[in-house]
Amino acid sequence: MPVAKNRRSDTRAKKGSRMANKAEAVGAKGWLSYRPEIKVLDVTIRDGGLMNNHHFTPDLVRAVYRTACEAGVDYVELGYKGSKKIFSASENGPWKFCDEDAMRAVIGEKNPAVKLAVMADAERCDYHTDILPRDKSVLDMIRVATYIHQIPTAVDMIKDAHDKGYETTVNLMAISTVQERELDSALEVLAQTDVGVIYLVDSFGTMYSEEIRAMMEKFRRVTDATGKHVGIHTHNNCQLAYANTIEAIICGANYLDASIAGLGRGAGNCQMELLLGFLHNPKYLLRPLLECIRDHIAPLRKEFFWGYSIPYMITGILNQHPRTAIKFMESGKCDDIVKFYDDTCAEE
Fold it and tell me: May I ask the CATH architecture of the domain 35-302?
């Protein structure tokens, strides 16, 4: 056996022993213990693709997938199932559409331990035709993303994906802008579907821990009664993506979204390396992530910027979509943050 592989095995064994001791110390039901139902989902390619119109090279996508396999990640989200009637194939890269041939070309021989997912936006996906039956696809999971007014369409999409044999999730977007009674109604509707996971999504990176806690209580009143799970997807506008993900774990979230080095739209997402470093499951390994960051993700910073910045903080505090901050950051004239703040507040 190669030396590097021996080292990984030794590290895994030592980590497993430490985690087992820690789990025993806090009790089997403590939130610091190993919780086998927790699943980690890598959103690097899908959310990161929002920074470059999904023009990642096959080599980079392949590297992210292989890294996830080595690190023990449970799911990899390869991109979107966008409608070619709505989105231009000349302006958007292949991961906006995730055609079967493109996915198979980068995956090669699929690792059975790592499942593959795509996101399908409500009203922006020709799901009847573009999502094949599961036995004809490399995919395992369809993640339906929906705004509150699109719930009827989302319900139809969930049924279609479930009937085709897929695992399903639903991501409720921009809920920080939704009236409580509307959210309650949407959750009640989704509870009656076959969806497996309902995601709490902090789309604008605006929530604080107490808000995550309150939302988790609301979501779990529905999911616990119907045998579903809650997922968490956070953005880092206020430097709270990782902290809010931990808060959601404490409150019972079992499906956790993260991206390598936080790569994602605007301020980015919960950093995968932080999350795996926190979780107490010995199957998750940190070193493959660090190699991927060094060799593949860090060089992307020469092409575009993501991560915390004051303009993203401002839109997060104001509970606004970060599109204005993204435009400001891409303008090349992003020094006057005071003017950006004044202009953004004037739009309130």
Answer: Alpha-Beta Barrel (3.20)
